[in-house]
Amino acid sequence: MLLERGRGCTPLGEMAARLFLRPGLVEAAAARLAGAGGLRLEGDAACVDDPLALALAAVKLGVSETAVARHLDWRMFEEYAARALAEAGFEALQGLRVHGPGGLELDVLGLDAAAGLAVAVDCKHWSPRVSTPSRLRAAAARHRERLGRLIRHWRRLGLPPGRWRIVPALLVLREHAPRLAEGVPVVPASRLRGFLEELPALAEDPAVYVARLEA
Question: How many domains, the chain?
């Protein structure tokens, strides 16, 4: 219910009435979520500050990933990825597009010019139920092809010149996702910040696919 409304406040009594639950149960659940992130209690109301952070907190507290995914949209994933990149010191670019045959659509690109290191994030707003290994492998293969187009269009997009190592990543909601698919890191949203901290090491890992742009 809170995720359906997005940012804003909902009286706890209204929530209890709509969910046919005792007010005490709703208050206890809201208190647990407020302690986990994305939600704060203000008087007798629960206020959502960050819908995706609230969703991740709910998953950690045992709420079904599939149930949570139904109330999220792809914009939340892109915003979350861009914010995490910016907080980690990357320049975060969203919605890169080149139209026409051989064009490009890229959700989020993070650039660390000092290290010559970039990460291209494909945000997969999939229900965890359908995030099967075969589907992840197919998405990873397409993302690897996308990096080739990114390199071809690098200058056209006005991106910084130089030598770059570009690591692809699939961002998913599912907590128990495989580490790699076709050499592409599969990153649960709850672990994105940790992934970014490990990115320099991952760029040297022979198991990880890395695209290279020469000066």
Answer: 2
Give 75-80's long-range contacts (Cβ < 8 A, gap of 24+). 76/51, 76/52, 77/52, 77/107, 77/123, 77/124, 77/125, 77/171, 77/189, 78/107, 78/108, 78/123, 79/52, 80/52, 80/53, 80/171, 80/189, 80/192
Give the residue ranges of DSSP H helices in the chain: 2-5, 12-19, 23-36, 51-60, 65-69, 74-87, 133-152, 192-197, 199-202
The percent helix, strand, coil of the chain (3-state, each to 5) is 40, 25, 30
Spatial distance between the Cα atoms of 89 and 72, rounded to a whole number of angstroms: 26
pLDDT at site 18: 66
Does residue 114 share a domain with residue 11?
no
Q: Has residue 4 got a pLDDT over 60?
A: no
User: Which DSSP helix (H) or strand (E) runs through 70?
Assistant: none
208 — pLDDT class (breaks 50, 70, 90): very high
Q: Tell me which residue range forms the domain holding 91.
A: 74-213
| pTM metric for this prediction | 0.76
Instruction: Identify whether 68 is part of a domain.
Output: no
Any domain includes 69: no
Task: Look at residue 78 in the predicted model and tell me its pLDDT.
Answer: 87
Residue 137 is assigned to a structural domain of this protein = yes
Which CATH number do you get for residue 145? 3.40.1350
